[in-house]
Specification:
Structural class: mainly alpha
Shape: elongated
Order of helices and strands: HHHHHHHH
Number of helices: 8
Strand content: under 5%
Helix content: over 70%
Number of domains: 1
Length: 224
């Protein structure tokens, strides 16, 4: 795959991934803003003229009084920002999953082995190569994650794909004392195996969260 094709494919994958994540975050933010503001309006409306704490009309006192009268609305009022954060978290996760899935689907994993070789070359100690600095799988994974995070030559998408794979591969079964061990090839194969196991992104969790959120909102309005 040529440079132009690589750039074009990376742009397409990045755009589709961003669109999926942004759509979830946007819909979730709208739902959260609506539920937050409606609950706030209802709380303020119900709290008007409500005597609390010996005749004082503090906002905190109103909330405590409202908790006894309309717990669903008060709980949803405080839960709305939490729902918003969950939508953003889901949006990020689905965007990342979309990117990794598309990278595999388009067979655009050729960049992995050169990057792994580049990372290992930075671990050379005293001219001994990686053998002079790696003694265990845990140490190797930590060093590879650090090298990937500090790699400024790779795109954000490529770093995320490699980071995702590195966090999930097992390196403890590698015999580091083996003669002629092709460590970059072994690690690359493990990374590709993890990436190949990524399924098509599912919006099920988003739909469940949105249904629960909407259900709580309607229940709170119905019981006000």
């Amino acid at each position: 795959m040529g440079l132009t094709e690589n750039i074009k494919l990376s742009a397409q994958i990045g755009a589709k991934s961003l669109l999926n994540g942004a759509m979830i975050a946007a819909i979730g933010t709208i739902l959260s803003i609506i539920s937050f503001n409606v609950m706030l309006f209802q709380i303020l409306q119900k709290g008007e003229g409500m005597p609390v704490s010996g005749g004082h009309f503090g906002g905190v006192g109103v909330l405590f009084a409202m908790m006894a009268q309309w717990p669903g609305g008060v709980i949803l009022f405080f839960a709305s920002p939490i729902f918003c954060a969950l939508y953003f978290f889901l949006g990020y996760k689905i965007a990342l999953q979309t990117a990794i899935y598309l990278v595999w689907e388009h067979k655009a994993v050729d960049f992995i082995q050169p990057k792994v070789r580049s990372f290992l070359s930075t671990l050379s100690v005293g001219g001994t190569g990686w053998r002079g600095s790696i003694t265990s799988g845990v140490m190797l994974k930590a060093k590879l994650l650090t090298a990937n995070r500090n790699n400024k030559d790779a795109s954000f998408l490529k770093r995320k794909v490699i980071n995702y794979g590195l966090k999930r591969i097992k390196l403890d079964d590698i015999d580091f004392q083996q003669e002629n061990l092709d460590l970059p090839g072994v690690i690359s194969s493990k990374l590709i195996e993890v990436i190949s196991g990524i399924t098509k992104p599912s919006f099920l969790l988003f739909f469940i969260l949105a249904i629960v959120h909407t259900g709580l909102f309607l229940c709170a309005l119905y019981t006000r």
